[in-house]
Write a structure and sequence with these properties.
heterodimer; A: about 180 residues; mainly alpha; 6 helices; 2 strands; about 5% strand; elongated; B: about 220 residues; Rna Polymerase Sigma Factor, Chain: A; Arc Repressor Mutant, subunit A; 8 helices; binds zinc ion
């Protein structure tokens, strides 16, 4: 199968580092015989590769065996130290979290319940009908329901505001 | 496109300095040492360290030239290997696995340095950065390998790593694949691209240097 120049260039990039397989090598050679562009590209790639390879034996990178000590002595001490006092593995304690979540939700539920029972006794608008006297047979709760504005709007009822220190007369003793 | 099923038999493999190359199979002595090290034999692990440490140091210094820092990373790599010996598959060669730990730790370190640099109020200007011969004082005589080093640093990390491991450190492509956790086909493709990138970067630098010389001659 004939290859185009861009496919051949891929082979050239591999060829300059001796990374071609036998069949690829054949394909490359047969294309280059006929293509001067690819021949000159190959020459340029070879020079670039030769430049790169100057780093291979760069004296700055050569590890001097005399001056470079082995890491084993200090590594071995570190391993011994870790064996002697194994690192405390810190495990995430789910129980603590579960317990906290439970108590928090319990607290929230209790708060909501007590708030709603408070609302049952207190007119949210702070008003109570002035001329309402409930008879003894009625429980404060049933009376409350009757006096709630919107629930039992009696147009004849005159509402006066309660001052903060005043207690509605119909409140139960225990409140 | 390119089928890459065969392994490169003539390639150099990742082996310790004194052990012979033997393709994808670990040497007998290495199997023994690894087995003993996995069973808690510190001396056996010490021998593995001494077999590989210089090559690991050389690879790390391709990314982090500072000898002290690179040595610390070598030690850290072996410490990690020691801690994870039970995860190592003893039917495989120790080298690629070890180099993978070392390269990953090196990447982590470089990332940390970059992050620190980004958030630091003051940065050490010029430190850890190779000199730029095309734009710096042309009277300063930089040797060729320094210039090549600068060009190499321009190549994106994933490609540069392949170039370093294959062309500078002589790993075979299947070992580069094992170290970088990529398929061999990917590595061959990256290798070709990386060499092309290097050539293009070098040519750009040459053009810039030519232009700078012309400007200097005219003034
Ligand atoms: Zn062509």
């Amino acid at each position: 199968m004939a290859m185009n120049c861009s496919e051949v260039k891929h082979l050239i990039h591999l060829d300059v580092g001796d990374d071609l397989r036998a069949e690829e090598d054949l394909q490359l050679s047969s294309h280059m015989e006929q293509c001067s562009d690819c021949r000159s590209y190959h020459a340029g790639m070879s020079s670039a590769m030769a430049l790169l390879l100057t780093l291979r034996d760069d004296p700055a990178m050569v590890v001097d065996s005399v001056n470079t000590k082995s890491v084993w002595p200090s590594l071995s001490r570190e391993i011994q130290r870790r064996k002697a006092s194994p690192r405390v593995t810190r495990k995430f304690n789910l129980q603590v979290v579960a317990l906290s979540v439970c108590s928090f939700s319990l607290a929230v539920v209790t708060m909501v319940q007590s708030l709603s029972s408070m609302r049952d006794y207190r007119d949210p608008a702070g008003f109570v009908p002035a001329q309402t006297v409930f008879n003894q047979s009625q429980t404060p709760q049933t009376k409350m329901l009757q006096f709630r504005p919107g629930v039992n709007d009696d147009p004849s009822a005159v509402r006066t505001a309660l001052l903060p220190h005043e207690t509605p007369v119909w409140l139960p003793q225990s409140f | 496109m390119w089928t890459m099923s065969e392994s490169d038999a003539e390639d150099q493999a990742i082996e310790s300095e004194d052990s012979p190359e033997n393709g994808g199979v670990p040497s007998e002595s290495e199997v023994r040492l690894v087995h003993a090290a996995r069973n808690g034999d510190n001396d056996a692990f010490g021998e593995l360290v001494q077999r590989y440490e210089r090559r690991v140091l050389k690879v790390i210094r391709r990314f982090i030239p500072d000898l002290e820092m690179a040595t610390d990373l070598v030690q850290e790599s072996f410490l990690r290997a020691f801690e994870r010996m039970d995860q190592f598959d003893p039917s495989r060669r120790f080298g690629p696995w070890l180099f993978r730990l070392a390269v990953n730790l090196t990447y982590d370190h470089l990332r940390k340095v970059r992050r620190r640099g980004r958030w630091a109020l003051f940065t050490d200007a010029g430190e850890d950065r190779a000199p730029d011969p095309a734009v710096s004082d042309p009277r300063r005589d930089l040797d060729l390998s320094q210039e090549v080093q600068v060009v190499l640093a321009e190549i994106p990390e994933a490609y540069r790593t392949v170039l370093i491991l294959r062309d500078l450190e002589g790993f075979c492509t299947s070992d580069v694949a094992a170290v970088t956790d990529r398929s061999e086909a990917t590595i061959r493709w990256r290798l070709a691209e990386a060499r092309k990138m290097f050539r293009e970067a070098w040519e750009r630098r040459e053009r810039r240097a030519d232009k700078a010389r012309l400007v200097q001659r005219d003034t």
